[in-house]
Amino acid sequence: MSHDYATVTFEDGQVFHAEYDGTVSLSQASFFESREEITAQWRQPDTRKCSDPANHPQELVEYWTNYGNGDSWDTQACRTCKVITGPRSESIPYERAPFMSEENS
Ligand SMILES: [Zn+2]
Description:
Elements: E1 3-10, E2 15-21, E3 26-27, H1 35-40, E4 58-65, E5 71-78, E6 83-84
Bound molecules: zinc ion (ZN).
Zinc ion binds near residues 50, 51, 52 and 80.
């Protein structure tokens, strides 16, 4: 199974449910309040972004996925839009914006 469940945990302890795509080693951008919601849109294309990054708080979250042996990393997210706005892979450093070109390639 190349996709697996994941969680997005905010600093105040609120937990949301997300989907991790192990094929490309990236999380889907959206997260949801219930596992049923994530199941309903499983493997659907997900290109959502924060609709107003200048005005929506970008909060620190811990991402955890059940994929492989389990993995977690710090990133950021918009709780208003329910979308991850920071790195969606542990292999992307937190300081670097997602999808910037690799320096050494
Ligand atoms: Zn937003």
